[in-house]
Amino acid sequence: MPDLKIDTSSFDFAGEEVSFLTLDGCVENYMAPKLKSRFMDLCDEGKYNIILDLKNVEFIDASGLGVMVGGFKRVKNYKGMLGILDAQENILKIFRITGLINVFPFYETVNGVAREYVSSVKAINQLADNQKRSLVLECVRKYANKD
Length: 147
Description:
Blueprint: E1 5-13, E2 16-27, H1 32-44, E3 49-60, H2 62-77, E4 81-85, H3 89-98, E5 106-107, H4 110-117, H5 121-125, H6 130-144
Parallel strand pairs: 2-3, 3-4, 4-5
Antiparallel strand pairs: 1-2
Helix pairs in contact: 1-2
């Protein structure tokens, strides 16, 4: 199985920090601890809103799902959320079979994630700090162009 690469980026959506973990490879028995460690690091830093970008994930086994469920429970304890972005059909099938499709919020695009935190452009325009508004709009544009 290929190694699991994890890239982390964080963005502020209307005052809510959201961390994106972009995964590339397989989330399986040998690589699941790497993902668990990244979840723990984020939580230790007080980052409880996490999106897993699964666009480049080829396979997830029970160990990988277990780490995701554990991460979901951990961030929920802090009123955070763990969502899934851009999962391929074969990965979605695993979530359907296990019933986890009803547990995690799933997003097809980053714009869907942005809508979770920023309900409309009006909400963005109401931000008092122009720098924050520019940063949020820049982040939304950057991720919208990834689609």
